């Protein structure tokens, strides 16, 4: 998954030995944080991950490790017990002793149960409630034991509810989570506390001096004084501030600007793998885009190699949303090859006739589309221009209609576009029905396919790896044939960081690079 150039560095984990505390890390984010509640946000929870902890979390190798729990539940260690009829399961978490919320209140099993109750509450507007409806009930026999009773088999349990964060019952019970101050200044158990949230500008976090974790050498963690997350949606401005020293870390350095970053004194670029891919999606409310012939023609009209070359050769061509690192990736998934002549022939045969301006139409509908990417993302805007030019060659007009921040998020979720290009990044155990399942949390396309729903349900309802692989092959084939989305390239992360920042390990999952910041230190 790593794109290789000699000028870039690969980080390795280094143990911290008697490191001095201190230092402020100023991180530039390419989006505006909508909320600090990890269950409500429509973006990656970078700042949230430094403040709020879950029971387990994925590490730099996309393997789950214990955080507030003492071990990751598994069948082998007795943490997962499947019912005799094979239809339900029970998961037991043992919690760490001595963990405190940022206000000094002890963390207990009651907080875990409250989190489930709060997320599943219909009144709470969440980005995703995955993992909540599958829970029949939670038992808390003591303050450090949580027994979760599932009404089904849920192999993706680690990617959902209790991984994204636990919420404090003593502060939130009886409040409206949609309007709570928790959404701006959450109280967590993490290594950093929110000091200030200025909407549209920054989130300042400061060291939690009462953090539960210690380093291998016994040092009290965390080492850093503060992490500040600045919201800078325009990537040109972001790189300018990196050069000036106003920010000193960027976890999403644009491919096209990597060469500029390499010359900045005291900054290095780390390559990190990502469970992430770029995709072009269609709004099925447009009659022409609901026509498979048009979607196939668009797929044949796009040359991935041009997009990759324009982006410095970093991303890799992909034909499935299942990135190749997963063992359930199916290399036999079909893909429509770049073929302009075949695309034009398909549209001709389907009755889409070019007008005087070269744009095709049928039954009074011109193949002219509002095409959205997130404004300010240099890589996405560059890819958008490539795709616009390529679609013109097959008689399709695409006009940039880009939005920033929350406006982009709302359009993405509500189908406020014809075509949309962007990126998804998954957990180490993905829940794919969110993207294309009927009524899926991220399905703003109005797409529905019962066969796809069934295949994804098979994938997400068995613990057997062989059965999951078969089901994954089914849904990959259906996506390739019905084309609600065109998977284009697999991303890598180009992370600009201070050379002096040590113990940083890139995290390839949607839990972000900030899921384990406690041991970071400035040399």
Overview of this structure, please?
The chain is of the alpha+beta class. It is 23% helix and 22% strand. The protein is built from 13 helices and 22 strands. The protein has helices spanning 46-49, 109-120, 169-172, 235-244, 258-262, 292-301, 304-310, 340-349, 378-392, 405-414, 433-436, 450-459, 465-482; strands spanning 24-29, 56-58, 64-66, 80-82, 89-94, 135-142, 145-150, 192-198, 202-207, 226-231, 249-250, 267-282, 316-317, 353-354, 360-362, 365-366, 368-372, 397-400, 419-425, 485-498, 501-502, 521-522. The protein has a 6-stranded mixed sheet with strand order 13-20-12-19-17-18. It has a 5-stranded mixed sheet with strand order 8-9-10-1-11, covered by helices on one side. Strands 4-5-7-6 form a 4-stranded antiparallel sheet, covered by helices on one side. Strand 4 and strand 5 form a beta hairpin. The longest helix is centred in the C-terminal third of the chain and has 18 residues, at 465-482. The protein is globular, with a radius of gyration of 23 Å.
Write the layout of secondary structure elements.
Layout: E1 24-29, H1 46-49, E2 56-58, E3 64-66, E4 80-82, E5 89-94, H2 109-120, E6 135-142, E7 145-150, H3 169-172, E8 192-198, E9 202-207, E10 226-231, H4 235-244, E11 249-250, H5 258-262, E12 267-282, H6 292-301, H7 304-310, E13 316-317, H8 340-349, E14 353-354, E15 360-362, E16 365-366, E17 368-372, H9 378-392, E18 397-400, H10 405-414, E19 419-425, H11 433-436, H12 450-459, H13 465-482, E20 485-498, E21 501-502, E22 521-522
Parallel strand pairs: 1-10, 1-11, 17-18, 17-19
Antiparallel strand pairs: 2-3, 4-5, 5-7, 6-7, 8-9, 9-10, 12-19, 12-20, 13-20, 14-15, 15-16, 21-22
Helix pairs in contact: 6-8, 12-13
